[in-house]
Amino acid sequence: MDWKKFFKYFILILGYSILALGFSFGIIILTGGLSPIGVLINIYLPIVAIFSFIIFPIIIIILLTLNKKKKKYWILTLIFGCLVITLYILPLGSIPYSVNQGESQFSEAFGSDYMDYIPLDLKNKFLDVPYGFWNVFHINQNSQCNISKSCGPYLKIPIYNDSFYFDYYCPRSGSGPFPTIINIHGGAFVAGGPGITNVPEVSQYLANQGYVVIDCSYGLGKFKKNIFINLLLGSVQFALGEGRLNKSYTILESTEQILANLTDFIVKNASELKIDTNNIFVLGRSAGAALAGMFYGYNSTQYPIYKNWFNSTLKLKGLILYYPPTNYTPLFYPENTNPALSDVFFGNESLTPDLLNSLSPINLVDQCAPPTLIFHGMNDGLVPHYESVRLKNRLDEVNATSILISFPFYGHMFDLDINNPAGQISLYYLERFLASIRYTSTS
Question: What is the domain range of residue 85?
Answer without folding.
Answer: 3-96
